[in-house]
Design brief:
It contains 13 helices and 20 strands. It is of the alpha+beta class. It folds into two domains: 198 residues, no CATH class; 179 residues, Tumour Suppressor Smad4. The strands form four sheets. Strands 7, 8, 9, 10, 11, 14, 15, 16, 17, 18 and 19 form an eleven-stranded antiparallel β-sheet that branches. The longest helix has 19 residues. The protein is globular and about 60 Å long. The termini are far apart.
Amino acid sequence: MAVNAKLERDARAGMRPAIMKRARFFAESIAEICARSLVAPGRPLRWAVVANATAGGFALSRRWEARRAALAECATLARQNPAREDCRPAATAARLGAAPELASRGLVATERAGSGSVIAAALAAEASAALESAAGDATPFFLVIVAGGDGTSLEVLSVLFHAPESLRANMAILRLPMGTGNDGADSPDLASTLGLLIRPSRVELAPALRLLTAPGGSLARKGPFLAFNILSVGLDAFVTHMTNKMKKKSPGDFYKLWVDIAALLYDRLYTVGFLDVRALDERGNEALSFREKLLLIAVGASGRRTYGSRKKILPDDRNVCALRQMPLLRKLALKGPLAKGLHADQPEVRMFGAHRVEISGEHPILAQTDGETVLLRREDFPAAIELTEPTIPVLRLAE
């Protein structure tokens, strides 16, 4: 009878028994690490984990075993730190968590698309109320841990991006690599990311990316669109679009498959026309402008970023990569260098730094914002991809 009741609770949480077992171990390990964390020393600490248990790090057995080992190692290292007296899960976890054994350890599992946004809004409301009622050293510090793929991270960060500055000043966000691609995680290595909790750290504000479209266009009422890693248009957005379609049917890393297929299909489905590109620096001065037929243009929140399951599209400090149209055989030849970050000096590649990139074109083109796609139509131009002010509070190792 007890076993049946437990299975019913797991079913209500939307997880298979094997996934629930992994989620429990994950929640227990994170709770132990947070209870001995060095984040915001001297202040009450409240944490919550927003987890997508269908993400690759949970659902794919081989990936889970690597994550499990990293969690166990970091929990062991955390025991070297003293236990914190005023440290507990955020109340939102208990209120929204479908599985009590997870919620009691601060983990809230997402149930569908948009769940991350709902959970983040509830956490923001709890943090706001706590800050209003507390004062001085008793003011709690909120730690929001995102454990999922780039989609979960995008949902949570989009909500917190719009939170009041006073709230974000008492909060930090940690993005764990528990998805398939993990390009938006704080590190591709789980142990290194968790190290930010158990070693001395500081909070640093990071910028986001914003896609703006023409006021009278088809996307005017839906935007602006945010990204926190890379925002891009063209071939890679098509690959992301098709990958997302396949992920809805079966978990797995389909990006590599669609990179190959897109080289054959993209030109047939979308017209690769001329794009007028204008790059501006932080002061609004024009850095360069050009008009070319482009397969893609990718803009990062900084340089040295990856996308599409760790493809090194921005291999150095420059945060923009534009890729010219080219014959099929040349596309296939460049696939390897692009994945390894060895493409910067290729003749079809234009790398540069910019604070804002303005684009105009005559033909529809897909854009992707950290793995979510929208279609830019002719009436949506001119469009712009720009860096925001530093807004997102992230953890960095103390110097």
